[in-house]
Amino acid sequence: QVRLVESGGGLVQPGGSLRLSCAASGSIFRFNAMGWYRQAPGKERELVATITGAGRTNYVDSVKGRFTASRDNARNTVYLQMNSLKPEDTAVYYCYYHDLGSNYDYWGQGTQVTVSS
């Protein structure tokens, strides 16, 4: 069993920054991928960033150059540094952990990010 707890969301003005954190506990293996999805009201869930156990990252085009995913395997924590935030980044952000052995995704409870003046 894996538990994920996100933190760091909030209200920020356009152009501002936020750093999301996701602490994982349970049967965590550092070679499994983790990452972030987001879901805005009335929209489908969107994959924002993934980071492999080796630290390789991928991003959706709309956040490239603005968002940076990282992970601290010693702390079982992943981060999402979000800079130059835009109103269209407003969404609930969810952390996920992909268990390769069972091909199962675990999810956190989500954290709200609101970008507004």
Helix content: under 10%
Oligomeric description of these chains:
single chain
The helix tally amounts to 0
Termini, distance in Å? 40 Å
Query: Helices and strands, in N-to-C order?
Result: EEEEEEEEEEE
Number of strands: 11
- Using the alpha-carbon principal axes, give the shape: globular
Low-confidence stretches: none
Radius of gyration: 13 Å
Q: Which percent range describes the beta-strand content? A: over 45%
Mean pLDDT: 95
The major pleated sheet works out as: 7 strands, mixed
Derived from helix and strand composition plus strand pairing, the structural class reads: mainly beta
Provide a concise account of the structure shown.
By secondary structure, the chain is mainly beta. It has no helices and eleven strands.
Task: Describe this structure as you would to a colleague.
The structure is a single chain. By secondary structure, the chain is mostly beta strands. It contains no helices and eleven strands. It has strands spanning 2-7, 10-12, 18-26, 34-39, 46-51, 57-59, 67-72, 77-82, 91-99, 104-107, 111-115. Strands 2, 4, 5, 6, 9, 10 and 11 form a seven-stranded mixed beta sheet that branches. A hairpin with a 6-residue loop joins β4 and β5. The N and C termini lie far apart (40 Å).
